[in-house]
Amino acid sequence: MSGALLLCAVALALLAAGGAIPPPEEAARMARFVLHNCDWGALATLSAQEGLRGHPFANIFSLSDGPPGPSGGSGVPYLYLTDMEISVQDLEINSNASLTVSLAQTPYCKKHRYDPQNPLCAHIIFCGSIVKVNDSEADLAKKALFSRHPEMESWPKDHNWFFAKFNITNIWVLDYFGGLKIVTPEEYYSIKP
């Protein structure tokens, strides 16, 4: 079977399996789909901590681009952070980071018996920086996060929680064999999932 026919067969099989996952040739749509269907991601920073300074440091964070459901979200990864958290302390020194989200956290990969490292178990790598949201965006971030993570509303107020977003500058999609696909932020935000 030729590469193009194999790609079409896999895309048709994926669509027949649930109809929701975008085909591999729609990398920007896949990036939006994966982010919207994930509730957490691995955020990697450059450590500012004694003994680890300058080394990569990854940590798990709850996130949301909007309430769950077919609306598809905004595409903006929102986070609820506190300065007490070690990765946030790293970000205060250097706000650059990467964020990886994977369909491995959803039932999709288990259903198809895809190992999390299998490219068919799609994952997206975002690069950019973490920024606090302004007052006009805080309600959107709050609705996005608290709709998926209701426990957040009861977290200790004395921790000085704040809403932040991942400001995306680069996007890599791994959802099929043959290597990463590059999606620009413009392509990503222009897609309606």
From TrEMBL:
Localization per Swiss-Prot or TrEMBL: Secreted
Limits of the CREG-like beta-barrel domain: 22-190
InterPro entries: CREG, CREG_beta-barrel, Split_barrel_FMN-bd
Signal peptide (from-to): 1-20
Key words, A-Z: Glycoprotein, Secreted, Signal
Principal localisation: secreted
One Gene Ontology term, aspect cellular component: extracellular space
Membrane-spanning segments: none
Domain of life of the organism encoding this protein: Eukaryota
Pfam families: CREG_beta-barrel
Family according to the record: Belongs to the CREG family.
UniProt-recorded name of the protein: CREG1 protein
Organism expressing this protein natively: Urocolius indicus (Red-faced mousebird)
Gene: Creg1
